[in-house]
Amino acid sequence: MASAAAAAQSAAGAAGAPGKRLVNDVCVDMLLLEASSYLLGRRGKPGEAEDLEAENFRELHHSAIARLESLGWDVGCRLTERLCQTKLLSGEPLEAVKFICKDFWTEVFRKQIDKLQTDHRGTFVLRELNFKWLAKYAPDKSRTDRNLAWFTLQFACGLVRGAMATLNQPATVKADFWDEKTDRSLLPAVSFTIRLKQA
Amino acid sequence: MIVCLAVISKANAPLLVRTYVDPSLGEDQADTTIRFHHIVHTSLDVVQEARAGDRHVPACRRWCAATRDMFLGHLCPMDEYEVYGYVTSTQVKILAVLEETVTSRKSELAALLHTIHGFYVNYQLNPFSPLNQPIGSERFKLAVDRQVNGYNADIG
């Protein structure tokens, strides 16, 4: 798994390195897909689609979800260390979140995040209207697709959580693309909810 | 000259402590190391005070916020040494313990600590290096030693 992290990291990190090394977007997409498939243990087992359809997908694949998330966390930590090498941050939570919305997002997705909302009590909602890593999913169709898209999203959750942790703002991060009210997918729009852990 | 250089994690755990004391002075290596560990540990309190974002610290003492620089400058005298500090945005501290023989050149020291920060970032970018654990990388140690020895040679 370390190699997957390595590759994903160079994918995300190299773009902003002084040497301006760039990484093909498609490669990142493929790598993420492959990592998901590997972690779900789906290699060479096309017949076992039932467990991806299951209502309790999140409990069923608990450890795979945690591993993908922690991979993202690792990359997020290291990448943030690099990105704020020359940037002095005051240590306020809002500044850390702004850093993620602007600098961090620009580095990973080449755009700033679209919307940031906060209740000023430790909760931040980040809305990304065109989330590149899931832009080609169409998870309205079946529960399997929806579960897999959500699973892939956990890597990005980990990225954000790692970045927050490195900036000394330990937090929990959740992401979803499902509108509970209308019971429809909002893809490619995705929202991340960051909740600071109270010290 | 620099007699000790320490990299401290954001949780205040030592990641790397290098000492540069002439072995011919006859002091026991283990003793020296422990002594510098102690000095570095004590200086961390001053770094904590100096650091911006800590609400318990009066604004006038938040040097970092005032200077907008990661290099904190002179922190405190400690026995016969002087301690200088550098804090990154991610709260990784780099401390240099100097034996003041001549007036130290601050800008050069700032540049040195900045370079070491760069080494640290590069070290962290390696996905195989453990996060927030003592640094075992020989390459990192060697790079740091080379920089410090270069600085010491310049001053001396």
UniProtKB/TrEMBL annotation, chain A:
Source taxon at top rank: Eukaryota
GO biological process, one term: endoplasmic reticulum to Golgi vesicle-mediated transport
SUPFAM superfamilies for the chain: Ligand-binding domain in the NO signalling and Golgi transport
GO CC terms: cis-Golgi network; trans-Golgi network; TRAPP complex
Sequence similarity: Belongs to the TRAPP small subunits family. BET3 subfamily.
Protein name: Transport protein particle component, Bet3
Taxon lineage: Eukaryota, Sar, Stramenopiles, Ochrophyta, PX clade
UniProtKB/TrEMBL annotation, chain B:
GO biological process, one term: endoplasmic reticulum to Golgi vesicle-mediated transport
Pfam families noted in UniProt: Sedlin_N
Any one GO cellular component localisation term in the record: cytoplasm
Family: Belongs to the TRAPP small subunits family. Sedlin subfamily.
Protein name: Trafficking protein particle complex subunit 2-like protein
Organism whose genome encodes this protein: Tribonema minus
Source organism phylogeny: Eukaryota, Sar, Stramenopiles, Ochrophyta, PX clade
